[in-house]
Structures are given as structure tokens and as C-alpha cells.
# Entry
Amino acid sequence: MSKMSLIFNPHNKLGEGGYGIVCKGSWDGKTVAIKRIQLHQCCNQEEDAMKKLDHPNVVKFFHAESDDNFRYYCLELCDGTLDQMLSKDNDPEKFLKAHPMPIQLLNIYQLATGLEYIHKQGLIHRDLKPENVLIIKNRENQETMKWADFGLSKPVNERGTCSMSGMVGGIRTIRPIILAE
# Structure
């Protein structure tokens, strides 16, 4: 087997899910997020979906490689998740006071635009939740929302539908967000 082209420390975790971990690392001279999944848990549909998608509101896929035990995906490094943003100090109202409504509407618009693009590419995400929305902040501290984690995505057929057998997505407690008047 050839030497791997990516560098990361599995103890430097950015996140963890049911199928793997995401760590900060480097690939081809750039800082990236590296998603590591055990080979026996890999699904081609996630990799196929990531390779197919190229949109400002979808996390960018750069590269994939394997070793004897794991499949590694090099992805665009983001600053955090929507879940983390809403959970600051476990007080969503504090977040809402710090982010005026126009910013929130722009974020919703970005997510809707990204989701529309995913659907136009013939895919259904099937795991929409705050943990799967990543955020990048630019130099002016403006946020860009990005959809991530296509492990449960499905292609649609020629009629625009797909089978929906079995329960999908993660289970989480929903925290209500109250918009101030």
C-alpha cells in the first residue's frame, strides 16, 4: 500500500458520530477536516454524494483514501456546527440577541439554497439536523452555512422519489427557539 497523503491526529477530534470521527488535519498543504470511518461501515452512497456536490452551502469534498482499516475523507474545514452555535451557554435566546434577525434570515436562506441544490442533483439528505450544518466565518466574521454528512443520503429515481424504508437520522432532543419581538 502506498503512503497516505494526509496527516492528522485522531485525538484531535472535531466531532464524533455513530460511524466515525472527524479530526483536524492536513492534505496537499491545506488544513482540512478528515472524516475517518471504519472500512466495514463505509457506504459508497456517501462518497458518491460528496463527489457529486459542489455548492457554496455544501461542505466541499477534496479527497478520499483508505488504509487497511479505515476510509478517510478530506473535507472543507469549518468553524463549528449550527448545534454548537445554538447551544452557547445552553441559552438560545442569548444567541438570538447577539445575532439580529437579518443575519438569521440570511442563514436560513443559505440552508434553503444548499438544500435546493442537493435536491436538484437528485439526492435526498435524510439526516437534516443542527449537527449536520457546519459554519465557516470569513475575515469580516460573516457566516456561511454548509450542509454536511451525506451518509444517509439517497438518490431519487426518474420520478423524483425514493424508498423510505426504515428509520433514519439521529435522535436528538429538540430545543425550542423563541424569536424575540
